[in-house]
Design goal:
Shape: globular
Order of helices and strands: HEEEHEHEHHHHHEHEHHH
Largest sheet: 7 strands, mixed
Number of strands: 7
Radius of gyration: 18 Å
Structural class: alpha/beta
Length: about 280
């Protein structure tokens, strides 16, 4: 066990199972965002939470601008944590950009992973006409980064509610905004550039482990077309359309998030890769 890595990434381990579920947070967030979901699996699994270097309560002195200039550096954080704890057959649960980070890690060392659970994933945020819809034009992303440079607090204030998409629960947007604002602006800016300019479509086709794609309704960051693309191109994938709105169902709709993950992990389940409509997915 490498204590230096565990301290660097603020690793927390709990639970009673033998198989590990590793939860990875999204951009501008930290492991605390999983607090409504991860404990629900503690009776059956060993739970591992961590913060990427530069996020949460990680060791900021370990941050290296060159390493984290691409998502590969964050994938190495995942692999470092797995190897420090001597993990094998890991169920990786990643939110947003961590979905692709998990794919990169699993492609690099597939023997470490059992399956991938991807919450709001996107391999490419920028549209690539005429065949790929990512949800944003390049100018949109450039404008986002320019706003971060000029007015970071204003950027966080605008983006948090647009991402959360649950206006009747403003406390969720406020928490996300606070998380954005607690991150070093320079580090956040670099992470945003690595995230939103990345193109990992080629990596998706190389996935060797089964995966669950959890697609939210009315998601600004990862629209339905992205989930459908991933399902078509990722071998062994299952697409599940949630009733949850917005980009953070583990915060806004934890009960549905837990239920869908449990159904996917159920050993006796009959896997179906049929895309469900929003009406089918929405509880009666």
């Amino acid at each position: 066990m490498n204590d230096a890595i565990l301290a660097r990434n603020n690793v927390k381990v709990f639970g009673h199972g033998t198989q590990t579920m590793l939860f990875a947070h999204g951009f501008g967030c930290d492991q605390n965002m999983w607090r409504f979901v991860a404990p629900a699996f503690a009776d059956d699994y060993r739970i591992v939470l961590f913060d990427y270097v530069g996020s949460g309560k990680s060791d900021l002195s370990a941050y290296d601008a060159k390493r984290y200039s691409s998502l590969d550096g964050y994938a190495q954080d995942v692999l470092d944590v797995c190897n420090a704890l001597e993990l094998r057959h890991v169920i990786f649960v990643g939110h947003s950009v961590s979905s692709v980070i998990g794919i990169l890690a699993a492609n690099r060392e597939p023997d470490l992973f059992d399956r991938l659970i991807l919450v709001g994933p996107s391999p490419r945020y920028i549209n690539d006409a005429p065949d790929y819809v990512g949800g944003f034009e390049r100018g949109d992303i450039e404008g986002l980064l320019e706003t971060m440079d000029k007015n970071y607090i204003g950027w966080a204030n605008f983006l948090a509610p647009a991402i959360m998409k649950n206006p009747d629960r403003p406390e969720l947007s406020a928490e996300l905004e606070a998380s954005f604002c607690s991150t070093d602006p320079v580090i956040a800016r670099r992470f945003a550039e690595a995230t939103f300019f990345a193109d990992n479509r080629a990596d998706v086709a190389k996935v060797k482990r089964p995966s669950l794609i959890m697609q939210c309704a009315d998601d600004l960051i990862a629209p339905l077309a992205v989930g459908e693309y991933l399902h078509r191109t990722m071998p062994g994938s299952t697409l599940k359309l949630l009733a949850a709105t917005g980009h953070c169902p583990h915060m806004s709709h934890p009960e549905e998030t837990i239920r869908v993950i449990r159904e996917y992990l159920r050993p006796e389940r009959t896997q179906s890769t049929r895309i469900r409509t929003v009406d089918e997915a929405r509880p009666s």
